[in-house]
Amino acid sequence: MDGTLTWERAKAKYQSFKAQAKKWVARFKHLGPLKYIFEPCKSSDAIYFPTGPAAEYGKVGCSIYVGCYGGCGYCYRNDPILAGAIGGSEVRLKKAFKSEAHAFEVYFKELFGGPGGRIREEIREHGIFFTFTSDPGLPETFPLFAALIGETVKLGIPVQFLTKFTGWIDTEIWDDLLSIPEAKKYLSIGFTLTGRDDLEPGAAPNEERVAALRYFHNEGFKTFVSIEPILDFECSFTIMIKSSAFVDLFRVGLESHRKYDKHEAEMFVYDLEVVPWFKNVYLKDSLLQLLGRERDSFPEKFVDVDFRP
Ligand code: SF4
User: Fold this and answer.
1) Same domain assignment for residues 134 and 188
2) Is 155 in the same domain as 30?
3) What's the gap in Å between 38 CA and the centre of ligand 1?
4) Does the C-beta of 209 come closer than 6 Å to ligand 1?
5) Are 42 and 157 contained in the same domain?
6) What is the pLDDT of residues 102-142, one digit of tens each?
7) CA–CA gap between residue 141 and residue 233 (Å, rounded)
8) DSSP secondary structure string for all residues of 192-251
9) Is 138's C-beta closer than 6 angstroms to any atom of ligand 1?
10) Based on the domain organization, do 248 and 287 belong to the same domain?
11) Are 216 and 114 in a shared domain?
């Protein structure tokens, strides 16, 4: 997959994926307790428990695809340690999966991997984050993720969806997801904002992402924004101001291995403290470490890692 899949073809794939997702939910709901009672799922290929900075976004993640053609100069997937497994611009299935059909089976088997074939409690409690190893809003990734998300929210499991792309919003796939009554209750939609389009040549412009946040907020969805990595404190602050009226939670973090000016960081966080219209702000551990401050030294609007709007 090289970024040339049209939304028309994506729609056709979605119809088939949706049928597969429904089939697996029906099978695990009704046959799972019999078939899998002695086979609880321990390790995980599709659903897993992230560690480190990723865990500050979600305690449970879903990873089906790797690669992305957003072209962001700072993309963590291209870190030398990770690049072999998840880097590059070609969108492809993770090696663990033989096919997309196989990915559906594994995902729902893991979801229903609790005792007696029930939904695993840790997943029900924390919800699932889509996704750390690609972008879920591409024509190559959205059809499968939309099919998974549709069945997941119907089961009453919270989902966080974080993207830098907006093309999926004007598709019939999104219209179909939107028509699911549980979607507004369980699906939170997030965009990463840096204010630096020049460093994200393949992604939607930041202003378009802000417009999308306004749309989702007005539609009644919970919204969140990842201000990570901060590439320029002033750009990050400006884009936060522009989007603040439509955002229920900001998560703010630094780029790994980069040297930041501590004084600039202090001024940035001071501005976040004094400007009254930022509702809920989560400062990631990387930023607190640079500041040398404890989380409980901040006023109430600076929320902790478990906060969900
Ligand atoms: S959009 Fe996200 S996953 Fe894609 S290149 Fe940019 S940072 Fe990486």
Assistant:
1) yes
2) yes
3) 39
4) no
5) yes
6) 999 999 988 988 777 789 899 999 999 999 999 999 999 99
7) 31
8) E--S-GGG-TTSPPHHHHHHHHHHHHHHT-EEEEEE-S-S-HHHHHHHHHHHGGG-SEEE
9) no
10) yes
11) no
The 10s digit of each residue's pLDDT in 141-182 is 999 999 999 999 999 999 999 999 999 999 999 999 999 999
Give the bridge partners for 251, in sequence order: 226, 282
152 and 212 both lie in a single domain: no
Give yes or no for residue 75 CB within 6 A of ligand 1: yes
Is 225 in the same domain as 127? no
* Domain termination site, one of 143, 164, 192: 192
Residue with token string 């690669």: 67
Q: Which atom of ligand 1 is nearest to the CA of 77?
A: 8
Domain count, the chain: 2
Q: Which two tokens stand for residue 290?
A: 């640079």
Ligand 1, atom 5, lies closest to the CA of 70
> Residue 32 above 50 pLDDT?
yes
| pLDDT in the model for residue 82 | 87
Lowest mean pLDDT among 1-5, 125-129, 236-240, 251-255: 1-5
From the CB of 196, is ligand 1 less than 6 Å away? no
Q: Which of 57, 63, 77 to mutate to test the pocket of ligand 1 (most atoms within 8 A of CB)?
A: 77
Closest by CA to 287, choosing from 252, 259, 263, 261, is 252
What range does the domain containing 239 cover? 193-309
Confidence of residue 253 (pLDDT cuts 50, 70, 90): very high
Q: Is the CB of 135 under 6 A from ligand 1?
A: yes
Q: Is 68 in the pocket of ligand 1 (CB under 6 A)?
A: yes
- Cα dihedral 147/149/151/155 (nearest 10): 180
For the cut 70, the answer to whether the pLDDT of residue 274 exceeds it is yes
Q: Which of 192, 212, 237 is the last residue of a domain?
A: 192
For ligand 1, the distance from its centroid to the CA atom of residue 293, given in whole angstroms, is 30
- The answer on 200 and 114 residing in a single domain is no
Whether the CB of 70 sits within 6 Å of ligand 1: yes
Which of 164, 194, 198, 226 has the most ligand 1 atoms within 8 A of CB, as the residue to mutate?
164
Once rounded to an integer, what is the mean pLDDT over residues 10-17?
96
pLDDT (mean) for 57-84 = 93
Q: Please tell me the pTM assigned to this model.
A: 0.94
- Which sign, positive or negative, has the C-alpha torsion 85, 59, 171, 309? negative
Tell me the residue type at 296: D
